[in-house]
């Protein structure tokens, strides 16, 4: 059975729906006939004037939510419609609609909200969107600034809309008898509705410093504001991190593309000739194309950096970057030596050493810039110069301010709506769930990168299990969904990373198998050498040898890279590679080229694959695993610890497997004989420490021999 309270609430609900429809209908009519009006607050003011705060706020806010379907900016303006609803109810209670001066005052208040506050939203979102030449001329002649002109013109235009709106409201109110107003008010579900007169008498019966409703509203407002501030701060940090990362990637892509078209061997020639060559001009045009193609990159340059400073090779500036004046940045002539910016002091050693450096943010006479450097190497592997790209951080700051405005506008609309609901629901216990949500949001925002911790925080957050049956529960569910989605996204990202790593390792084995399948003598060679490499590197780690070099990352890279040590044999013809007899001197020289060929193949892979740091150790193994400790090896005759550690490890593993494996021109040596040869090469052919740990691990070595060779 439906009681009187429920009847009143149902009638109030239908009345709100009618007022929302009125707002939308008038908005459509105005738009269709292109009138200089909005009229989208008529229903809001009618609902506030007849039903009070709650119906007015519901109508104003819901109108903008629905309009947001076809106008994405409507949500940002919801705060204005809600403010109009609040002041309409507040001023109506004080009798302003019954007096001529009060009606004029309401028009002024609504105009200041719509035209005054409303002018700041597009201003902060997209900059000063002023385009009225007539009003600009009128107000400019009075000595006002452009900003003032913009605000005054908006107020002037909105005054007409709010005047028509108020008189339409007065006309509609004349059609509704005042005794029906009580049916447009929301009441408690089990409470008998009270009249406006009863409310007034209750308010005047007892003198109170602060009502319970006001106290609850203040506590709720502070709690919700705390949550909002936390979310806004986190959102701003994430947004800033995202746009900086995005623009860093754009700049990195630009410098990487630019570096790929430069030849490190030609840099000195450019400086000597001062760029007066056809090749230089071609490169300059290509760099200019790259600069124009890179969004938000304002300058692209190539510097040769040494103790004297930065020697300009190329210096290109984007002349038409929005928000950057042409005289803010200027290109330097080729050969000019620019002192190294003090802002780079932490990166100067790396720059002078020709190493890669992280993106650098500086604020100096050149502006507030994000700079990305990428080294260009010559044929000898030395850094010939750096390609640099600058991104204007001021532009990113403007984007951040616009994003903050969007967040604040949306939040303010929600805040006012919820505050009005709190006034109406003042005796409901909503403080405790809000405090719990605040606590969990704080904990979630400070969570670690651990997936287990992330899942635990999500589980704890969902365990609050809020059931308030209102917007608070909706907010809670939305945040629950967001945190759960974030946890699942992080899980998917980690799984994708692991899958990618496995795919890369599989490609390594596939490449190695392709080489091995061409060589008739290398049965299970890559598996055995990889196993020996693992034994040696773990032995070195256990004994503390080369502790500064042997990190967990190095150990993983060496083991993963081991199968690629003979990848250069792909370039050796089958005639030489599979010759059954001893190679001639000329054939041996051809066979030796597999080291340099392997180095070139892997260096191309390094230049192509992102995140393939382990390929650097693969390059060292492929290039130098035939070098000798005494310097009599090939291809470069390196000696001692000058030979990369990964190659020294592979040298022992490779030779031992070659000795213990059968070849068409020789049988497999007995294990003891092979170990004797390895021991004899200690300190001449091999790193003594690598041989030492290999000999100390004979049980493991023999297990591998037994597994693959079938013998002890």
What does the model show?
This protein is α+β, with helices and mostly antiparallel strands. It has helices at 4-32, 42-51, 53-67, 78-93, 100-126, 133-140, 146-175, 196-205, 212-261, 267-273, 278-293, 348-352, 393-424, 431-445, 451-462, 471-518, 525-543, 552-561, 574-577, 585-592, 594-608, 614-624, 645-660, 671-680, 688-696, 698-709; strands spanning 297-306, 309-317, 337-338, 360-364, 367-377, 383-392. The chain has a six-stranded antiparallel beta sheet with strand order 3-2-1-6-5-4. A hairpin with a 2-residue loop joins strand 4 (360-364) and strand 5. The longest helix is centred in the first third of the chain and has 50 residues, at 212-261. The termini are far apart. The model is unreliable at 188-208 and 320-330 (pLDDT under 50).
Strand order, main sheet: write it out: 3-2-1-6-5-4
Largest sheet: 6 strands, antiparallel
Q: How many E-type strands? A: 6
Distance between the termini: 91 Å
What amount of the residues lies in strands? Answer: 5-15%
The percentage helix is 55-70%
SS content category: alpha+beta
Instruction: Give the uncertain stretches in residue-range form.
Output: 188-208, 320-330
Overall mean confidence score, pLDDT: 78
Number of continuous helical runs: 26
Shape: elongated
């Amino acid at each position: 059975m439906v009681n009187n309270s429920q009847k009143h609430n149902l009638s109030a609900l239908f009345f709100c729906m009618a007022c929302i429809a009125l707002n939308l209908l008038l908005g459509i009519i105005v738009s269709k006939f292109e009138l200089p009006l909005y009229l989208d607050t008529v229903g809001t003011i009618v609902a506030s004037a007849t039903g009070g705060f709650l119906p007015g706020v519901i109508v104003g806010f819901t109108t903008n939510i629905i309009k947001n379907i076809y106008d994405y900016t409507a949500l940002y303006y919801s705060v204005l419609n809600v403010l109009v609803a609040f002041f309409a109810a507040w001023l109506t209670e004080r009798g302003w609609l019954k007096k001529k001066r009060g009606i004029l005052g309401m028009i002024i208040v609504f105009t200041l909200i719509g035209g005054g506050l409303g002018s700041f939203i597009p201003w902060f979102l997209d900059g000063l969107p002023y385009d009225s030449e007539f009003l600009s001329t009128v107000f400019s002649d009075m000595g006002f600034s452009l900003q003032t002109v913009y605000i005054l013109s908006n107020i002037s235009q909105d005054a007409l809309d709010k005047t028509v709106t108020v008189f339409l409201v007065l006309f509609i109110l004349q059609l509704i008898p005042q005794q029906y107003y009580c049916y447009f008010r929301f009441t408690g579900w089990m409470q008998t509705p009270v009249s406006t007169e009863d409310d007034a008498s209750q308010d005047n019966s007892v003198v109170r410093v602060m009502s319970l409703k006001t106290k609850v509203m203040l506590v709720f407002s502070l709690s919700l504001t705390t949550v909002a501030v936390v979310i806004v701060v986190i959102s701003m940090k994430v947004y800033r991190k995202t746009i900086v990362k995005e623009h860093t990637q754009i700049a990195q892509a630009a410098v990487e593309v630019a570096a790929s078209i430069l030849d490190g061997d030609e840099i000195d020639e450019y400086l000597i000739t001062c760029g007066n060559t056809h090749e230089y001009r071609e490169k300059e045009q290509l760099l200019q194309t790259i600069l124009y193609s890179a969004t938000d990159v304002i300058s692209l340059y190539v510097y040769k950096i040494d103790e004297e400073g930065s020697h300009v090779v190329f210096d290109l500036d984007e002349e038409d970057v929005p928000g950057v004046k042409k005289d803010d940045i200027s290109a330097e002539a080729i050969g000019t030596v620019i002192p190294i910016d003090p802002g780079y002091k932490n990166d100067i050693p790396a720059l002078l050493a020709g190493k890669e450096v992280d993106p650098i943010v500086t604020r100096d006479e050149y502006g507030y810039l994000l700079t990305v450097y990428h080294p260009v190497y010559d044929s000898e592997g030395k850094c010939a110069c750096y390609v640099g790209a600058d991104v204007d951080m001021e532009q990113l700051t403007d984007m951040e301010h616009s994003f903050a405005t969007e967040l604040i506008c949306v939040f303010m609309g929600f805040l006012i709506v919820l505050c009005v609901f709190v006034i109406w629901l003042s005796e409901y216990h909503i403080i405790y769930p809000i405090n719990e949500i605040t606590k969990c949001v704080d904990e979630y925002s400070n969570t670690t990168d651990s997936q287990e911790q992330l899942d635990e925080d999500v589980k704890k957050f969902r365990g609050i299990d809020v059931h308030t049956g209102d917007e608070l529960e909706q907010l809670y569910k939305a945040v629950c969904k967001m945190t759960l989605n974030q946890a699942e996204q992080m899980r998917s990202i980690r799984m994708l990373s692991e899958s990618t790593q496995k795919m890369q390792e599989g490609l390594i084995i596939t490449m190695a198998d392709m080489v091995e399948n061409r060589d008739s003598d290398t049965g299970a060679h890559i598996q055995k050498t990889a196993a020996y490499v693992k034994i040696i590197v773990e032995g070195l780690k256990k004994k503390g040898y080369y502790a500064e070099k042997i990190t967990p990352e190095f150990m993983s890279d060496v083991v993963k890279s081991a199968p690629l040590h003979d990848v250069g044999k792909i370039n050796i013809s089958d005639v030489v590679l599979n010759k059954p007899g001893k190679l001639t001197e000329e054939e041996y020289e051809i066979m030796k080229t597999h080291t340099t060929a392997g180095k070139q193949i892997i260096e191309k892979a390094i230049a192509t694959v992102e995140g393939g740091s382990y390929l650097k150790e693969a390059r060292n193994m492929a290039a130098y695993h035939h070098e000798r400790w005494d310097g009599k090896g090939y291809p470069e005759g390196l000696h001692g610890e000058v030979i990369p550690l990964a190659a020294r490890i592979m040298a022992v593993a490779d030779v031992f497997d070659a000795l213990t494996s059968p070849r068409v021109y020789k049988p497999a040596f007995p294990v003891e004989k092979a170990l004797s040869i390895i021991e004899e090469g200690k300190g001449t052919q091999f790193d003594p420490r690598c041989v030492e740990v290999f000999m100390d691990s004979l049980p493991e070595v023999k297990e591998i021999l037994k597994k693959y060779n079938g013998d002890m």
